[in-house]
Amino acid sequence: xxxxxxxxxxxxxxxxxxxxxxxxxxxxxxxxxxxxxxxxxxxxxxxxxxxxxxxxxxxxxxxxxxxxxxxxxxxxxxxxxxxxxxxxxxxxxxxxxxxxxxxxxxxxxxxxxxxxxxxxxxxxxxxxxxxxxxxxxxxxxxxxxxxxxxxxxxxxxxxxxxxxxxxxxxxxxxxxxxxxxxxxxxxxxxxxxxxxxxxxxxxxxxxxxxxx
Length: 212
Description:
The protein has helices spanning 3-25, 31-48, 56-61; strands spanning 75-81, 90-94, 101-112, 115-122, 129-133, 147-151, 161-164, 167-171.
């Protein structure tokens, strides 16, 4: 890739990250109306932007990304539980690609009606919050490697993981696929075993393409 092409690609990536952040922060944010507006914006971004995880062929045959129907019961309050001394510290997740192994620090456990998840923070410059999970739909209706509720280093602020003072809300309607779901040239950190929920969570994005 020549210098001009490399610069153009880098600027396109910056624009993509900006648009992701704007999409997550844009009103409306409440209820099904907020979810539908978000889905429409996300479909438009995936189907038109050059930095989308979809290749041109996928864009041409995809009308919209597949989701479960909106589920108001999938928006739940979480209880923050401190980690036992033996569970504190770092966890490393291998992306399987050029990013290698990414190190995270365990922050706390978030207890919900679906089970408990460890909230992670990326170690290093610009570290962000990361909340991947698997559940009873993984490998069936959803991607076997799990989905994300947030990865703030990529601009996914709010919606899936919401802080309001001391209160923490998880909205699984905004669970989304890692980029590696869409093509085999992308590699991603996947949910560790400790972030496996015992029950199916039928909300959020389905596997792509969804088998009919």
